[in-house]
Amino acid sequence: MVSTTESTIQKLEDCSMNGIPIYTSEKYGNDEQGDGSETKPFRTPLQGYRQYGDTITIYIDSKDERKDKWELLSKTQGKKVKIQYEEEKRKQERSRQQELFSSTNEENNSNETNHSSPITTDNEQGIANIYDNKYPNNNNNNHGDEKSITIDELMQNLNKKQRRTLNRAYERQGNIVNDKVIEVYEKLKPTSKDKNETTNVDIPLIESISIEIQEDTNKNSSDDNPSVFTSPIKDEQLSSIDNPSSDLFYDFQAENFHAEQGAPFVCTICNNVGHLKSECPELIVPNMIDLPERSQEWIEILSSLCYYITERCKPKQIDIENRERILKQLQKQFEKDYPDCNLYAFGSFYNGFGFRQSDLDVCIVFKDQRDENPDEVIQIMRKILKSMRSNSDTFESVQAILHAKVPIIRSRHRRLQIEIDISFHNMLAIENTRLLKAYADIDPRVSQLGYMIKHLAKTCDIGDASRGTLSSYAYIIMVIHFLQQIQPPVLPVLQQLSGNATKKNSLYRKCSKWNVYFYEDLLTLNNLWKNENKLSVGELWIEFLRFYTEEFNYDERVVTIRQIEPLLKYEKGWFRQTIAIEDPFELNHNLAGGLSIRNWTTIRRVLIRARQQFGLQSKDVDISKPDMQLIQVRILFSN
Description:
By secondary structure, this protein is of the alpha+beta class.
């Protein structure tokens, strides 16, 4: 092969280095139409031309503003440099072998030399020289006139090193094609339901070529070991595809994603695999045993226990006086800034079911109703907060909770260590306190049962709504509902009683858009309703536990105290798998709305266990000399 003169090479390098794009005559995998329109420009020395005989053919863009320099270079070098514009279509597709070599040249340079050297290597240039010498008539023709030769013809004139180069190139291209074929095959695997209809389809793969190379014992380089390309597809993959290509489809079934097992079962309660929520061990409640007929002595002991716990838990006179003293201090301090404000105490301490340690809940109401404006309330709270913090001798730990459902100021009386919660215009809470106090005053057994369930909830740690269980207020509603439903009832439904039935509006009193009416005149209650239930508080306690473990239908019914008729969940739109407890005034408020099914199961276990403990007479209790403190420990704290 005749070499290009050094001056021509130098001038080509100069043009390339000066930024003139040189287009190679080879395509690099982007020319799908075979017209050379996707050839790539290069700006590095000696990478944009290919030598065939005495002529260097350079492909350039006809719109190149510096093409005149190329044409001048072509004229000065005679026939040694030939200009070919990209817009001219080649007359026929180039040979498959020449295309293979050009693609291999690009991949070799990108992976091995990082584009730092010319496209053609010595071995590949040697292969091109053999091609030119074998077909000299094509030396001065365009690429569209080049003649194809077979691999066998080309290998006849290759030396050992050039054969290795050809072998590697063919192996690399064959692997790329075969990997794509395997990828398509894997995506089109047949589904299990179609295994009975099989049609053999051969996979067209590129087979390896056999190039005989005799080992040169004088060299110990990596090039001495020939790389023989073999098909990576296993025999069983070549056998068949079950469906014809025209009927291939893929079923979106569980077994296609997880072998034949399908999706695993995951419990949303304990997050363990292998069972559903309905079968979760954490939702299993113990079986209830049949309770024997209770002796009168045991009933009397339970009644005494209810009375004992009530007396220990309910506020003493000193507790009431301390809270009244704090209330007067707050009233006096707030009147300095707001002379028209009034303070009202509410909550469990004043509803007839409060403990000695209960918080003091205070509501501030303004005569001009400015406290109904949320923005105004925030300004008032900040001013009151500053006032209480300035009186550090009386109040400590003063903080504001502004973004709660009901914004409050929380503090503690320094000397008495009583927690204080201050809210604004919380009229529904005041009405709830009055309603529960009325029920507690109707019959002393009501407050005794309330103290029993609150003491049980506190002992078993199931009485804190902030921790996902039920509030003490919710338990009191459960007690009142039970006493209204038992036959004969212990309590009437005060919200359905009316002393003046002739007036249509006698059963309505509006507060914060809700009807807060209830019958308040307890002195005349006997004229409208007669209490005929004579069960002792001990018997009522056992019946309360039995009612909520055996009778009440949690799946369908709602605990309500505003009507005697059954209230169903579907009427309220409450479909959770826990107990549903309706607020007596704010009717869209489910007092058990924050109760999780796991905590509800815990509450049910406690009620079932309490039914058994209180229903069965303890063998360790001396009925003749009952010790209430010992009985309380035996029943509430036994395993």
